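Intended use. Records like the one below are meant for learning the mapping from a protein sequence to its folded structure. Do not use them to infer anything beyond what is encoded.
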Amino acid sequence: MSEHLLQQTLSPEMAAMAEYYHQGLSPPTSADAAAARYAAEAAGGRLPSGERLDDLVAREADRLAESGTNGADRSLPRDELTIRALGAFVAAGLVERDEAVASLRRTGHAQAGDDGRDTGGRLDSAAERARTEKDYSSATATPRRDMNPALAGRLGIDTAKALTAAEIANLLNGQRADGGDIRGKQKQASTEGIGTIFGMDEGRMPTRAELENVLADRKVDGTALPEAAAQRALRRFQAVLGAKNAALTAAQREMLAVVRIRA
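Structure written out for the chain above:
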């Protein structure tokens, strides 16, 4: 289930619709999505420069890596993801072109592409695509950025990054993302299976004699059960068989035994 929740399950059309209603805008371009996603990181409409910018670019490249593939459905190389991230930032007006080129040089991604274009040309092409092409990378499962910080903290969720399969599995198991206990969470007592309580063999149907023992508040081998536990378990067992009344008549007991044996 955790692996399924990490998959990009929305079609491009549904992703565009989801972005439309989530942001109140027309289906977004990559530049639109980047502007909305990193608005809180910007000051005066600009992202920080230097190493702080490099960190944000790396974060966006990591996010793109979760859904970005080439035409052969293979993961994109890191330099391509980095240029796409910076191209979206430039197209969104979050970063000046010169600062984007400087970031590529600082992080070791300033090299010519396979098509021979230099770094500036590749960046310009990425920015142009970000201005015109629709963004579908947001269809990948990530925590909502507007999640209540107190709730995120209680569950151990870092809203700045996508959850791993193990972290989602922990949440589905009623634990914090890191596997710890959720502070203040009430733990419910587990319910023991009826078959286990009565000592039934799960590999076969019970015999008539075994059913008669169960209907007499005993285990299938005739061993007595504690009175309170036996009554609760018998009511559950009768409910499974479709008997609504707490007490069975002799005819009902005979009918249950005969029907279950024939089944």
